[in-house]
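#structure-requests
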Amino acid sequence: MMLHPSYVDMMDAVNSDAPEGEEIVQSRYSIVMASAKRARQIVSGDKPLTENKDKKPLSIAVDELYEGQVHILPGTPAEQ
């Protein structure tokens, strides 16, 4: 069972889908905003994309981002 990945690990996981030489996420703020947005979606009724054994919405959102089940689109504010 994984606790939570570090910000560096999260940034590496999110940026692994980026084209060579580019980064989708450059700061911790982007990871926090994307995780919070996804957690709000889960609270609003969206089905979690990962196994969620009695986890809180934010923990589920972090796991989804880390596992690559949810993606951050480059150039889009996380608040949308």
